[in-house]
Amino acid sequence: MKPSKIGDLLVKSGKITRAQAEKILQLQQQEGLRFGEAAKASALISEEDIQQVLSQQFDFSFITDKNSKLSRELIAAYEPFSQQVEMLRTIRSQLELRWFSGEKKTLAIVSATNGEGRSYLAANLAIVFSQLGERTLLIDSDLRQPRQHKLFNLNNDQGLSNFLVDRADATVIKEIPELLNLSVLTAGTTPPNPLEIISRGLGACLEKLTPHYDVILLDTPAVSQGSDVQLLARNAGGAVMLARQHETRLADMESMKTFLEKSGVICVGAIISNF
């Protein structure tokens, strides 16, 4: 008897031995179970082990390693089957219909003030796009208060700011080994003049990167911090506006929408979160 593909993956990953896989297969045939069900019934592996090999089989990557150094805020990586992540997938579907269905590839995540969850949303949206098989690039374009390097446990010595002034090349973009199809460009060195650097370099930067990715998401600074977000969103072409439930003022959302649209930015939609 030959173990199933799941059995082969469990053996290859060191979860079980070949002899144990044969025993599981015998139990599977005796009880009329699926291989994964028989494996759990034999007490040789856990549900977590099964989910991990299924993710390999279907190219759906998520994190089961409790010792991973990636932030627990990356809920789409740690709890991909939770209700909260299901909502993120719903947002992803809407964005595919409204924005990414044609030639558009780049989108900015914006909010009126700090503390509304832009970085959290951008990171988790990037993960759910990558889980769909889209080649996804997350750019931390908040050159004032960057966070993505902390969420993904990346070195931030060089990143977007260095790339924009031609002091770094595309090697500063880091693939995330635990998450297939996902790459991150951190903010890099904090410059004294972020607005000027973005103004003179972002368009060319995106032009270089766009052919290599299906989806590019920009994590931006808050509108209240200055005009950076206006330039970033204009180069992206479109923006998703984020508000925090019971905290963000409607007047601030309206003001932000007007502010962006005056620059030719398409406001693709608004998300009210309680993350």
Low-confidence stretches: none
What proportion of the residues is helical, as a percent range? 40-55%
Helix/strand order, N-terminal first: HHHHHHEHEHHEEHEHEHE
The top-level CATH class of the largest domain is Alpha Beta
The assigned structural class equals alpha/beta
Strands side by side in the biggest sheet:
3-4-2-5-1-6-7
According to DSSP, the number of beta strands is 7
Range of strand content: 5-15%
- Taking the alpha carbons of the first and last residues, their distance comes to 49 Å
Using brief descriptors, characterize the structure shown.
275 residues, Rossmann fold, elongated, alpha/beta, 7 strands, 7-stranded mixed β-sheet, 2 domains
Summarize the structure.
The protein has 275 residues and is an alpha/beta fold. The chain folds into two domains: 53 residues; 199 residues, P-loop containing nucleotide triphosphate hydrolases (Rossmann fold, 3-Layer(aba) Sandwich), CATH 3.40.50.300. The protein is built from twelve helices and seven strands.
Written overview of the protein:
With 275 residues, this protein is of the alpha/beta class. The protein folds into 2 domains: 5-57; 75-273, Rossmann fold, CATH 3.40.50. The chain contains 12 helices and 7 strands. The protein has helices at 5-12, 18-31, 35-41, 47-57, 75-78, 83-98, 118-131, 148-151, 160-164, 194-209, 228-236, 250-261, and strands spanning 106-111, 136-140, 174-175, 182-185, 215-219, 238-244, 266-273. Strands 3-4-2-5-1-6-7 form a 7-stranded mixed beta sheet, with helices on both faces. A hairpin with a 6-residue loop joins strand 3 (174-175) and strand 4 (182-185). It is elongated, with a radius of gyration of 21 Å.
